[in-house]
Write a structure and sequence with these properties.
two-stranded antiparallel ribbon, 4 strands, 2% strand, 434 residues, globular
């Protein structure tokens, strides 16, 4: 179930993890130059495919996997709503509990394939929480020599660090899933794609990121697309609620990503896996009473649980998160963005085939606005600066041409006035002569 993705959601779009790996030395052509009198010897060495090609080849199946797991999680999430079952919070809680296997799977793969010891994997991954300190933890740090004090420190630290992110995660995914009860999955996914616009806004507030000219334009386009989506069905109550919840999910995803970036920075795949597993455990252990409270208060209906949709929804959300984190770590972040964009037309096709929902032309226009905003957001800052410089250059030339035209007009007026004055002087001189 997509919603917050570690950057994109599921039981999730949302952060984004930016793992930087050291590139190998240049290997396309090695030139060995030796000065033997007047001769220079050049040796060309053939090498394996470049790293960029490998990333491209690895990224293609990941893009396809991200698109279809997102669509599958969204469609199954929509199908869970029946007259006997209406419990989006329980669905989010169940899906989040599946995420707990992220770190065990990562640790097992590292030990088997990378030949790393579990202690090394633990230390490098746990550092995502270890660097955090908080008021009142000093005595725990001093007593960490005993197992009891160490366990107490881990529990308290997990609650203090991961707790706020767990709340944001649950709220964001709840809004995303609750929106599916009101509007079509295609509409929800398209509206949720406006999340990068909110990431940009929060990045200015919390991260003090530089101003890039195209991104405010993207924010305006995203807002315009959201308004058109709401207008497409006439601002009905159900539609307005679905649109509002989808936008709330996008805002929550943007806030989650930005604060994660501020708190953690550029995390590794192991650190993100450890963080997700810790978040899942906190949710599973602490939030099950909320599910019971909502059920017995009548807010959510838990009779006749549709396991044939609940379990696939949770499993697809887990696979979605795996692909998101693996893709960001080992390929290009742009591929991850493309995977989520491809999910929109695939969802539209699924809605048409299985739910007989026809997308109106105005919604296509709305989606185009949001996707254009999405494209502006994922452009690299360097490319955006080039485009901005090009636009400023064009505007400068236009202003210069306008000023030249005004100068030409003024000079023409001055010439006309001079000729008129000369004629007037000649006439007056002639009259005096007469």
């Amino acid at each position: 179930m997509p919603g917050v993705r570690h950057q994109p959601l599921a039981s999730v779009e949302l952060t984004a993890v930016n793992t930087r790996k050291s590139l190998p030395p240049p290997s396309a052509t090695d030139m060995d130059l030796a000065d033997d009198g007047d001769e220079v010897r050049v040796t060309t060495v053939r090498t394996e495919p470049t790293l960029s090609k490998r990333k491209m080849l690895l990224g293609i199946p990941i893009v396809i996997g991200i698109a279809f797991t997102w669509v599958g999680a969204t469609q199954t999430g929509k199908s869970t709503f029946t007259p006997q079952f209406h419990a989006p919070f329980f669905n989010v809680w169940l899906s989040t509990s599946f995420i707990s296997v992220c770190f065990p799977v990562y640790a097992l793969a590292s030990c088997l394939f990378l030949k790393r010891s579990f202690g090394d994997v633990w230390r490098s991954s746990y550092s995502v929480l270890r660097n955090f300190t908080f008021p009142g933890c000093e005595h725990l740090l001093e007593e960490r020599g005993t197992r009891r004090s160490l366990l107490k420190f881990l529990v308290v630290q997990s609650l203090v660090v991961v707790g706020p992110f767990c709340v944001m995660w649950m709220a964001t995914n709840y809004c995303y899933l609750r929106a599916l009860a009101s509007i079509a999955p295609t509409d929800v996914t398209a509206l949720f794609s406006s999340a990068p616009a909110f990431v940009y806004i929060f990045s200015h507030i919390f991260l003090k990121e530089e101003f890039v000219m195209l991104r405010p334009v993207a924010v305006v386009l995203a807002i315009a697309g959201i308004v058109l989506f709401a207008y497409a069905d006439g601002f009905k109550a159900a539609t307005a609620a679905g649109v509002s919840l989808s936008v709330a999910a996008a805002i929550g995803a943007g806030l989650y990503k930005t604060l994660f970036k501020k708190a953690v920075g550029d995390a590794t795949l192991g650190q993100v896996s450890f963080f997700l597993s810790t978040l899942s455990l906190v949710s599973t252990v602490l939030l099950w009473p909320v599910c019971l409270a909502l059920h017995f208060s009548g807010v959510e209906v838990l009779h006749h649980l549709p396991w044939r949709y609940l379990l696939p929804n949770a499993a697809l959300g887990l696979f979605f998160n795996f692909l998101i984190n693996f893709g960001i770590a080992f390929t290009y972040p742009l591929f991850i963005s493309l995977g989520t964009v491809l999910g929109i037309p695939v969802n539209a096709a699924a809605d048409y085939v299985f739910r007989h929902i026809v997308i109106t032309p105005l919604k296509y226009v709305s989606a185009a606005y949001i996707l254009t905003a999405f494209a502006f957001m994922i452009l690299s800052p360097r490319f955006s600066r080039r485009v901005s410089l090009g636009l400023r250059t064009v505007l400068w030339w236009r202003e210069a041409d306008d000023e030249d035209d005004v100068d030409d007009d003024n000079s023409g007026d001055r010439v006309g006035l001079s000729q008129h004055d000369a004629q007037q002087s000649t006439m007056s001189f002639t009259s005096k002569g007469d």
